[in-house]
Design brief:
Blueprint lengths: L1 H15 L21 E5 L2 E7 L5 E3 L1 H20 L4 E5 L7 H22 L19 H7 L3 E12 L1 H11 L10 E9 L5 E4 L1
Parallel strand pairs: 1-4, 1-5, 2-5
Antiparallel strand pairs: 2-3, 5-6, 6-7
Helix pairs in contact: 1-2
């Protein structure tokens, strides 16, 4: 399920900026809730910007809002086809008490997943991890009446016309100039066990 959601998310980010993007989906991201599962979708966090000729990324609130809206709608549509009960929640509204502690823990675990599973900091003696938030996630399960929680975060930059012109000019000199990049991270947490399955 996460594999398909990542492809959908990348497409939504592309639509937000009126451009296209390539999608890289991690292998082994096929965990899916059983039919009829109650899924808590955290409002997606999307941050998009325009990459200028000088290499500075200027935040674009309109792109970010459009990407967040497109992403939330499409994820809901995808989950509805699988007979899941879906509830959408703004994570900012859950930041108090024990639920807030668990959401902050998830953020830290998610950053570790990105760093050690998909980033440059691989640990040679630890090729794989069993990522978990612990059984404390049952607090969220009870409070939100959910079996799973789905977190999606998207970040990206898209080249301006001036940036593209700079890249073309520099390519004549044999110098490669980045034209922006997009990354989507999705994490599905089993709220009964705390086990997290993430992919980017």
């Amino acid at each position: 399920m996460i594999r398909r959601l990542l492809a959908v998310a990348a497409a939504c980010l592309a639509m937000a900026a009126c451009t296209t993007t390539n999608t890289k989906v991690a292998l082994g991201a096929d965990q899916a809730p059983p039919p009829g599962a109650r899924v808590l979708l955290m409002q997606p966090d999307v941050q998009l910007g325009l990459l200028t000729a000088s290499g500075i990324t200027e935040p674009r609130a309109d792109w970010s809002q459009a990407g967040q809206s497109n992403l939330a709608q499409e994820i809901q549509a995808q989950l509805s086809t699988r007979s899941h009960t879906l509830k959408v929640s703004d994570p900012d509204s859950l930041m108090e008490g024990r639920q807030g502690q668990l959401l902050r823990l998830h953020q830290a675990v998610g950053e570790s997943v990105l760093m050690f599973n998909y980033g440059p900091f691989r640990l040679p003696t630890k090729p794989g991890f069993d990522w978990t938030l612990g059984s404390g996630t049952q607090t969220i399960a009870a409070a939100q009446e959910a079996d799973y929680a789905l977190f999606v975060r998207g970040q990206g930059s898209y080249a301006s016309g001036a940036r593209v012109a700079t890249a073309v000019g520099m390519s004549l000199l044999g110098v490669a100039v980045p034209l922006g990049e997009q990354r989507v991270f999705a994490s599905l947490v089993d709220l009964r066990t705390g086990r997290s399955s993430g992919s980017t």
